[in-house]
Design a protein that fits this description.
The protein is an alpha/beta fold. The protein has two domains: about 180 residues, Rossmann fold; about 150 residues, Rossmann fold (3-Layer(aba) Sandwich). Helix content is about 30%, strand content about 20%.
Length: about 375
Amino acid sequence: MKSVGRLLRYKDVYDIDGSEELFIDAMRENCKFQYDNSEDYRKILDGMNFNPDNIKSMEDVTNIPFLPTLFFKTHRISSYKNTKHLYKATSSGTQGKFSEIGFDIGSLWSAMIMSLRILRHWKIISPIPCNYIVFGYQPKKSNRTAVSKTAFLTTLLAPALHRTYALKYINGKYEPDLEAVFEAVKRYSKKKAPVRFMGFPSYTFFVMQMMEERGVSVKLPKNSKIMLAGGWKQFYKEAVEKDVFYSLAKKTLGIEEENIVEYYGAVEHPILYTDCPNHHFHVPIYSRVVIRDVNTFKPLPNGQMGLVNLITPLFKATPLLSVMPDDLGILHDGCECGCGIKSPYLEIIGRVGLKDIKTCAAGASDLLDKSNLSKVIQGGEK
């Protein structure tokens, strides 16, 4: 897709206004491709009287029918035959259901260029070898979750001397081994190489809490970083405010707040959102964020809370143009941040109940049902 290529070559990764025309062209081009190549997606667009050729403005882009992530957890939808899916990634799963998203070589290339440009902007890529502590899954061939693959790929951003994993595959299942992490922290603290933590904030916090309770603190080598991704998941009740997390990191590991980086994303929307020095997720040029009213799904002005709708033209093999995760959020004007980036930033408030997402998931499913392609998503499969 030519427009996507031009968008990927655009110099400033946060120049939303300057890249708007390119973004609109790329969305129209991708939407037409999905319409022509995915029978299921075409039925959804036809059922909602949406014509890809009519995408000529950002308002038209926001009118593209969105697919909730719940829809992907119960349907396998594609714009390519499986033979063209070079790579498949799955979500971590909700109530036993998970998304399986296919990527062709062009989509993987786009994801790589997008990620490298954003990471280079934030100076995350380094030639200095590091010791890694991964608060995620120990790699295993059968584990196709995106979060496990992303965690491993992140250990390639600086050469890895050693990797210690918090979740180890034991007797057919993953089990946390925080004692091994605790020992690794003490061991790595005596080395000269920087230490990079990567993965779930929950386990990162639990290890720091363990250190505090045992009266253990270390001073990790210069340029050590904590990189957080994946959210608190099932430990949402144990989640703490960021300032509490940062304070404990400084006390137990000697890592300052400026060296703590957080990422946001989803397997159904593989765009890298990296927080700025003020810990805000500014929207890069490769995506747009719309906040929608929880009752009407109409777009809300910046500053109001609603359902998060994520939009991107980067991926071809699966129709990921406009998706809605089960997140509540607020989109703020970039000038409110103070870091100098003018792009608006997304604040995630929390997760909405699944029953609130089922209505719009059912809408897409109903359109497919008219052709006997799927079951209705309404309280689960019938």
